[in-house]
Fold this sequence. Notes:
The structure holds two protein chains of two kinds.
Chain A: H1 7-16, E1 21-24, H2 36-40, E2 44-49, H3 56-63, E3 68-71, H4 74-85, E4 91-93, E5 107-110, E6 113-118, E7 123-134, E8 139-140, H5 149-152, E9 156-167, E10 186-188
Parallel strand pairs in A: 1-2, 2-3, 7-9, 9-10
Antiparallel strand pairs in A: 4-6, 5-6, 7-8
Chain B: H1 3-17, E1 23-26, E2 45-48, E3 52-58, E4 77-85, H2 88-96, E5 102-105, E6 109-111, E7 116-117, H3 132-138, E8 141-145, E9 157-158, E10 173-175, E11 179-184, E12 187-194, H4 199-204, E13 210-219
Amino acid sequence: MAVGSPLKIIAALEEAGVPELEIICNDTGLPDKGCGRLVTNRQVARVVTSHIGLNPETGKQMNAGEIEVELVPQGTLVERIRSAGAGLGGVLTPTGVGTIVEENKQKLTIKGKDYLLEEPLSAQVSIIKASIVDKAGNCIFNKTTKNFNPVMATAADLVIVETEKIVEVAEIDPDHFMLPGTFIDYIVQ
Amino acid sequence: MDKKQLRDRITSRIARELKPGSLVNLGIGMPTLVASQVDADSGIQFQSENGMIGVGTVEPCDESVDHDITNAGGKPVSATPDATYFDSAMSFTLIRGGHVDASVLGALEVDASGNLANWIIPGKMVPGMGGAMDLVTGARKVIIAMEHCSKDGSPKILKECTLPLTAAGVVDLIVTERAVIEVTENGLVLTEKGEGFEVDDIIAATQAPLTIAQDLKTFG
Lengths: 189, 220
């Protein structure tokens, strides 16, 4: 819930009042935390997410028809983004079979088991959060702040990383980086 | 029974169900209490959807803790010495890929076929499924921890779920304050009754047909 979110850039988006955003995120955080702030500030037109339960504002705007919400199982969400970043045509997952999640989706039977075809999901801009980034853009994400950050960096035209710390190239053992700097276009501290 | 007694009974019974050395995911609410019922030397590890194995206890949300270590609800938690952290793709590889031995979670409704509904009440409560659909689809064993009846006294263990499903045919075991119920190919089997409850009361509070195990035991 807003853990590993780029809070400074979210605050800047809020201040700039960028309207009609379409957001892909694991959850809409809390009304005053994470990308939930952008929902509260009525800057979000559409959201693709797995959980809105801790942000009543999202549900309220959804019921009033002011925001479009596409709910996706968390494991499916990450694989849809990963498949976009990895050049795949989607993923086959058993998650959602026999539920309303399978509506309007192709169902395939592989070796006797049913799967849903879930399509790739990408964005124009990916805004991620790292703990340490070197000047070549190589990223380290502390502990449970990794979550969707590395995968989201692979599936957008433009990638901006907000970091707690910027270090010189070669200051950190390259073995420790979790995301190659090749994915990063801008570093913000 | 007061709430605490009820929760202690359910969670301690579930703790006995977990095999030493297994990897377990606990859902929000009552299931998280299972962690404190497990022996420290059991080798049981807890996994969290947001990317962690080795989840410890929930910590106070103040300056004394590492805010980069959280559970799936975003709360700061302690980590065991053998803890590891990973991204969401790896986390759901563990979950969906059958590497999590048991998933313990709450339910709004469970039915005779092992169908589970716990993520939405259309028009009333739409929190989203989070990782629940993946967990119950992928975990080797799905254990439901819940009160036997809803707040108004109506049954939650039904012939057929009425709410939209989280997944079909996935539940293995239901543990309530009144009963331990196994889901089998032939329907639900009452294997243990809670101390202080009679079989007839349990049948009356359960809409789905129950087969009574030959060697019915009592748990307390």
